[in-house]
């Protein structure tokens, strides 16, 4: 069944919370990279020498473009795109009081998200909305991220009456692992709400450094996790540092993750580990491990955002009540389309049919 014919979901069915970033992309000459001491194919956090980089892009490259970025926001956009239903996803995070906030708000709204940004007002005016410069040179892509105001989310934003309403209405909650570095208290409150109301809480290992440095925060939420996502590198890092497992076997790790203690015993934990072009692993506690081959496009333009896109497609089909196999197909389709574009973007309309798109 093609996505355009899906039954309509309630607005606000999927709730995401994370670190909002405005992606500012442009095709640039290598000389610009050299001027800022950047490598053609790299991803770094902005340093002092990069403080005017965004303004340089806006001033000197008129073909620049804006994308509502940040891992969880990417996932919400992917789900909205696949479902072709604006308003189905709520997204929450912290932004600054500046022009980048407005640009980000416009880009995310255009993508169909319902937004509830917390606005951080820096008395000294130094902390701005989070950004990520996306510098494309030939087939290379250099990312320079500045988390800025995204680091300043506070739990009291959840107490706003409108946000309480969003939380009450949502059926599926999702946060990428990056947000555990910012406000783990907010995650735990959402975990407890989901558990108390028999809703789904989903999360992502997100990066090896999250698993290593902030893994204790992930472990605290784990009893509440119904769906856990990650890739092979992240899962191995988590197994080594948090589970003290002496193995790199992704199947074995996925099984162990699925069988960690869980508060809501009415349903088993589901673990999905992607492996780039290699088979995706599905582990459901108490069941045999399954593998799904990955469909590869003829040409890959940019793999950044593929994991976020996969989760978006999966959550969209989870919300529709589809099987895990169909949800994996939907996720693989979103990733398939994403890696054929620059940045975490998609064609104007999806063309997904679970009966013909096989992974």
Automatic annotation (TrEMBL):
Compartments where found: Nucleus
UniProt domain Carbohydrate kinase PfkB: residue ranges: 41-347
Reaction catalysis annotation: adenosine + ATP = AMP + ADP + H(+)
Single GO biological process annotation from the record: purine nucleobase metabolic process
InterPro entries according to UniProt: Adenokinase, Carboh/pur_kinase_PfkB_CS, PfkB_dom, Ribokinase-like
Gene Ontology MF terms: adenosine kinase activity; ATP binding
EC number of this enzyme: 2.7.1.20
Pathway annotation: Purine metabolism; AMP biosynthesis via salvage pathway; AMP from adenosine: step 1/1
Active site: 308
Residue runs in coiled coils: none
Cofactor dependence: Mg(2+)
Cofactor, free-text remark: Binds 3 Mg(2+) ions per subunit.
Any Pfam family matching the protein: PfkB
Source taxon at top rank: Eukaryota
Swiss-Prot/TrEMBL keywords: ATP-binding, Kinase, Magnesium, Nucleotide-binding, Nucleus, Purine salvage, Transferase
Gene Ontology annotations for the cellular component aspect, listed alphabetically: cytosol; nucleus
Function: ATP dependent phosphorylation of adenosine and other related nucleoside analogs to monophosphate derivatives.
Subunit comment: Monomer.
Family named by the database record: Belongs to the carbohydrate kinase PfkB family.
Name listed for the protein in its UniProt record: Adenosine kinase
Source organism: Rotaria sordida
């Amino acid at each position: 069944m093609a996505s355009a014919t899906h039954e309509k979901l309630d607005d606000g069915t999927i709730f995401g919370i994370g670190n909002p970033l405005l992606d500012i992309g442009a095709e640039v000459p290598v000389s610009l990279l050299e001027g800022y001491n950047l490598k053609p194919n790299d991803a770094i956090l902005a340093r002092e020498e990069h403080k005017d980089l965004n303004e340089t892009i806006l001033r000197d490259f008129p073909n620049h473009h804006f994308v509502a970025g940040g891992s969880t926001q990417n996932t919400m956009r992917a789900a909205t795109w696949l479902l072709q239903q604006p308003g189905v996803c709520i997204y929450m995070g912290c932004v600054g009081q500046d022009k980048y906030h407005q640009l980000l708000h416009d880009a995310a709204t255009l993508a169909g998200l319902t937004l509830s940004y917390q606005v951080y007002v820096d008395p000294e005016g130094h902390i701005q909305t989070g950004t990520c410069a996306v510098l494309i040179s030939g087939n290379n892509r250099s990312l320079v991220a500045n988390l800025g105001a995204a680091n300043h989310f506070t739990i009291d934003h959840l107490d706003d009456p409108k946000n309480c309403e969003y939380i009450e209405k949502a059926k599926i909650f999702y946060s990428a692992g990056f947000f555990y570095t910012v406000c783990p208290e907010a995650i735990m409150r959402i975990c407890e709400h989901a558990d108390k109301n028999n809703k789904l809480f989903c999360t992502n290992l997100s990066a090896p450094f999250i698993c290593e440095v902030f893994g204790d925060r992930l472990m605290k939420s784990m009893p509440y996790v119904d769906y856990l996502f990650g890739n092979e590198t992240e899962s191995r890092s988590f197994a080594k540092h948090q589970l003290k497992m002496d193995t790199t076997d992704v199947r074995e790790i996925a099984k162990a993750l699925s069988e960690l203690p869980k508060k809501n015993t009415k349903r088993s934990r589901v673990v999905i580990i992607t492996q780039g072009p290699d088979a995706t692993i599905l582990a459901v506690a108490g069941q045999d491990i399954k593998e799904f081959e990955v469909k590869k496009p003829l040409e890959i333009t940019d793999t950044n955002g593929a994991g976020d896109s996969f989760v978006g497609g999966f959550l969209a089909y989870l919300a529709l009540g589809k099987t895990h196999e169909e949800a994996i197909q939907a996720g693989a389709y979103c990733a398939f389309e994403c890696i054929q574009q620059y940045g975490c973007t998609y064609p104007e309309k999806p063309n997904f049919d679970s009966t013909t798109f096989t992974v």
